[in-house]
Amino acid sequence: MAGQISPTRSALLASKASLKTASGGADLLKRKRDALIGEFFALVKDALAAREELAGVSKGAYTSLFGAKAWDSPEAVESLSLAGTGDYAVQMQIENLYGVKVPKISIPERGQQANFSPINVGARTIQAATDFGGVLEAIVKVAATETKLRRIGEEIKKTSRRVNALEQVVIPGIQDDIRFIRGVLDQREREASFTLKKIKAKLEADNEKENAQAGSHGSAAD
Which segments of the chain does DSSP mark as H helices, in order? Predict the structure, then answer.
């Protein structure tokens, strides 16, 4: 960049302003990254807890399912599962987290009524249906936390790349420009000072010569 910049005082002032802006931007990005990292690790705990909950309710649900098939016959259980028409709607909003748009999923309360008539249905089948409703809720919790976690992680990577670009490319480049301009301006000042000294010395020499000639003329006149 130094070879493409004009070594003037106005360019020096502009480079200093750019350096201040770039340094301030890097500091802001680092603060944003640190805040996101804090949110990320806090959310990791929620994601792990959601995964553990899913594993737990899944284990219980499959145990209930095996019991229902054993007591009520696999055909009866599968027939009821195909007959189920219940909907499970979730509400999702977009929230802004340090400039990052992340989904906020509201998990609805599960209805207590079965999607089928409980008449002629065994208690174990009803329990299995209820337990798998818990599995569905746990899956939504996992999806909500891990989607948010992934978005934050992607933003941390993006912010880190921007910080590295500023600190390793942009700021050093501006600093090189400043050093280049200062070097040229200092050289010009030294050359100007040297030239002024030569002019001053010549003027003093000319004055001394004129004074000497004037003195010799005065002596001759006497």
Answer: 9-72, 74-83, 123-165, 171-221
